[in-house]
């Protein structure tokens, strides 16, 4: 997801992988030693390239760390694991980075990050909201990243989630610059963060190497964090700003220009026509801006070990590399250089990614954040209330279950309390998706971790004004989640859910199946999965009466949906009637804290069902 990204579903933890350090760590992690150019370590020797000195610049990179330091799943209170047995956390990435630096100690090396650092885990949340760094605490990601020794990092869109004061405090705690060439002052158009940094690197026995590192973030910040940045910072396109600053870096004597871009490689935008610039534009920068040698890619949560994009003006092959998110991988970009006509020039490039699941966490990084980690483990495992019954999300993808009704109720209740003026008379509806099928509340004591496990993203709550016709369109779009089947079953879950569509070739994810519920009266409907997508919503009614096309509602949505995430119709263009930047997960935790007891009798009802030709569908 764009505003809050889906997590892989952790699998039962196997025996942990063997843990290594040093050269053995690089070998186990998949490091491939590409043949070095002649005279690759300088040394003043000639030969191989017709008398030209040669060297290699290696750029090591991480991206989308999202507040992960340890290999830990706070919501499960267990070591992290997933179906492919990836490991996470900057501590493990640090081991790989330090081992690579040691191996490459005779040549120039840079270490960069491509953004989304201070949001995404309870560890990050705690030091933004519970014990905020604006009060004097050092952010655990600052502690960890300083120990790794980054040269620079790009701003990610999630850096702005907690407001500019928190971001500026985090920036002040770092030993390296946060770069954002396209985070600009609305009045002057000049960057409000450093646009770039120039590094002069020693080449043994040869002239020093001057490298410009340009940082670019995502234009979507203007939408996703509008409440935090509107009127204060604007976010023009990546290509537009790179066209300004790459020539400036070259004029300032840079032999090599590397971009750290919090923007995916495969051109797309989740915000449609709301902004004139694409969200994922790294490949466009490579293609359209002359003078770029390599791009560390972020934001898309994909793995791209090596991709070359041809610049249309110069014909240069520009290297793109994106390591997987949360510290699962470290990027290694090798740029082979030749010194000719008084300048270093890139003559070849290679990319690869290293796997963190083969190594131990760096002891210094682990030690630096252990106390803060322990504090947060205590926080997420502390009780906040009780549940009158055991509630589970396991069947939320095929049934209207009470635990999702709880989310709907808290969201709608908050919106109703916050509507003003004529909008206060609108009936309130709410959308919710089953983010985490393994979420549950036990009967009895409920902890922060239980509640947070139900809502695993840092989304904020908004409400938009919609019509009955738009609600039906929205539900039809959501119902594309289901596979078309004949008869009433019984079917397995896998036979009816996660339908493959042109925009979801690997199957529609659970987080893109929204149900809609009413607050003061039920919104009821059937989903006929024997019908083709687009013709599935049957009997849509509010308070027992058919919903007319022009009936108006306030619809509670999260900021991801309202910004266009998932491509759901209408909500990104509908008038916003509520936006207080309240985080939904915290609203749920606060509700339980205030009320003490989660009683399904207060909010649960079965308002939608799966049918086939009017007959209820059986799903086992």
TrEMBL record:
Organism placement in taxonomy: Bacteria, Bacillati, Actinomycetota, Actinomycetes, Propionibacteriales
Chief localization: other
Gene3D superfamilies registered for this protein in UniProt: 3.60.21.10, 5'-Nucleotidase, C-terminal domain
Catalytic activity, reaction form: a nucleoside 2',3'-cyclic phosphate + H2O = a nucleoside 3'-phosphate + H(+); a ribonucleoside 3'-phosphate + H2O = a ribonucleoside + phosphate
Listed PROSITE patterns: 5_NUCLEOTIDASE_2, TAT
Subcellular location: Cell envelope
Metal-binding is among the record's keywords: yes
Residue ranges with Basic residues bias: 43-54
Family: Belongs to the 5'-nucleotidase family.
Protein name per the record: 5'-nucleotidase C-terminal domain-containing protein
């Amino acid at each position: 997801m764009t505003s809050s990204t889906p997590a892989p579903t952790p699998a039962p933890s196997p025996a942990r992988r063997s843990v290594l350090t040093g050269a053995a760590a690089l070998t186990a992690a998949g490091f491939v030693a590409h043949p070095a150019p002649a005279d690759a370590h300088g040394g003043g020797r000639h030969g191989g390239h017709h008398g030209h000195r040669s060297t290699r610049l290696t750029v090591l990179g991480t991206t989308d760390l999202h507040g992960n330091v340890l290999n830990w799943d706070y919501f499960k209170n267990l070591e992290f694991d997933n179906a492919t047995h990836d490991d996470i956390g900057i501590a493990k990435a640090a081991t790989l980075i330090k081992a690579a630096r040691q191996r490459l100690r005779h040549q120039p090396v840079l270490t960069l990050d491509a953004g989304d650092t201070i949001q995404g885990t309870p560890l990050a949340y705690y030091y933004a909201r519970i014990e905020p760094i604006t009060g004097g605490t050092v952010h655990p990601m600052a502690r960890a990243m300083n120990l790794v020794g980054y040269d620079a990092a790009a701003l990610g869109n999630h850096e702005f989630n907690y407001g500019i004061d928190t971001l500026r405090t985090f920036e002040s705690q770092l030993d390296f610059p946060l770069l954002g060439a396209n985070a600009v002052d609305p009045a002057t158009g000049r960057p409000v963060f450093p646009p770039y940094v120039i590094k002069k690197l020693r080449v043994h026995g040869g002239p020093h190497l001057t490298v410009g590192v340009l940082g670019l973030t995502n234009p979507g910040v203007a939408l996703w964090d509008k409440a935090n940045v509107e009127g204060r910072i604007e976010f023009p396109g990546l290509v537009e700003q790179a066209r300004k600053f790459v020539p400036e870096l070259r004029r300032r004597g840079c032999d090599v220009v590397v971009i750290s871009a919090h923007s995916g490689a495969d051109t797309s935008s989740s915000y449609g026509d709301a902004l004139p610039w694409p969200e994922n534009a790294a490949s466009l920068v490579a293609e359209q801006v002359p003078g770029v040698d390599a791009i560390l890619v972020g934001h898309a949560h994909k793995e791209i070990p090596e991709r070359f994009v041809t610049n249309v003006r110069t014909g240069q092959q520009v290297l793109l590399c994106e390591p997987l998110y949360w510290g699962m991988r470290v990027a290694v970009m090798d740029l082979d250089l030749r010194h000719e006509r008084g300048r270093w020039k890139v003559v070849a490039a290679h990319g690869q990614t290293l796997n963190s699941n083969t190594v131990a966490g760096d002891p210094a990084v682990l030690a630096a954040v252990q106390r803060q980690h322990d504090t947060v483990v205590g926080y997420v495992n502390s009780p906040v209330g009780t549940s009158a019954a055991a509630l589970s999300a396991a069947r939320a993808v095929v049934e209207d279950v009470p635990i999702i009704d709880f989310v709907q109720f808290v969201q709608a209740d908050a919106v109703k309390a916050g509507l003003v003026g004529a909008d206060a008379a609108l009936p309130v509806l709410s959308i919710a998706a089953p983010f985490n099928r393994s979420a549950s509340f036990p009967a009895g004591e409920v902890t922060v971790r239980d509640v947070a496990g139900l809502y695993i993203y840092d989304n904020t709550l908004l409400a938009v004004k919609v019509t009955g016709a738009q609600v039906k369109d929205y539900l039809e779009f959501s119902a594309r989640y289901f596979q078309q089947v004949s008869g009433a079953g019984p079917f397995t879950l896998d036979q009816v859910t996660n339908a493959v569509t042109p925009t979801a070739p690997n199957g529609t994810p659970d987080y893109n199946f929204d149900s809609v519920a009413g607050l003061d009266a039920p919104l009821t409907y059937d989903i006929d999965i024997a019908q083709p997508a687009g013709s599935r919503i049957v009997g849509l009614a509010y308070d027992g009466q058919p919903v007319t096309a022009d009936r108006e509602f306030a619809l509670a949505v999260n900021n991801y949906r309202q910004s266009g995430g998932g491509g759901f119709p209408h909500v990104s263009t509908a008038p916003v009637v509520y936006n207080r930047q309240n985080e939904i997960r915290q609203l749920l935790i606060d509700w339980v804290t205030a009320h003490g007891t989660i009683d399904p009798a207060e909010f649960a009802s079965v308002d939608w069902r799966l049918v086939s030709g009017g007959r209820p569908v059986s799903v086992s």
